[in-house]
Write a structure and sequence with these properties.
By secondary structure, this protein is α+β, with helices and mostly antiparallel strands. The protein has a domain at about 25-100 and about 125-165 and about 185-195. About 35% of the residues lie in helices and about 30% in strands. A six-stranded mixed beta sheet has the order 1-2-3-4-8-7. Strand 2 and strand 3 form a beta hairpin. Helix 3 (about 65-75) crosses helix 6. The longest helix has 13 residues, at about 1-15. It is globular. The relative contact order is 0.15.
Amino acid sequence: MAARRLALGLLLCVAPPSPGLAYQERLILSAPSGRCTLRLEADDEARALRLRVHPEDASCRVSREAVQAFLQQAFARTDPPRLEGTYASLYIGRLVDFPWLSSHLASAAARDGRWDRKKGKPVDEGTNAYVASLLSQREVTAQLDSAIRDAGYRISTAIVEKVLVGELRDVGPPEEGTQSGRVPYDAMVWFRLERTAGR
């Protein structure tokens, strides 16, 4: 029994931790926003950031301006806790937590000839790749870039998984000029971060 315990102890010492155990979040900033709380957390080992929206109740809806102001404040912190070193990604979780991005995705797909509104899928590519391409467009990334630019960061591309598709009329108020049909409105989303010149 003692030998087995010794062997197990040695194995644990040399084996790498599982991905679930490796995540070491560090809270950078937490702030209320209406009926929500925004949190920015850093995983310094993975060089990754996580933006969380914690609802107080069903009326929680964060605005673009609130998220921009929050990110700008978090990235500008000079006193601990603050961002340290260079980070490679910003994970925002579910897109529906950011209603203006969800609405933009749905409306953009509804207007796009590369998306089949009747079938609810892209015409000639995978759904994840299609949604990532829409969320990587400058009109989307610029909305977050404006908040992190002064800290020397920009968003290069989006990465998504677990895309959800639904009827446009159920997603929310569509942008002007869009049509009905089945469109993407939610996904798990990461944005790749890059350092800007001179930083």
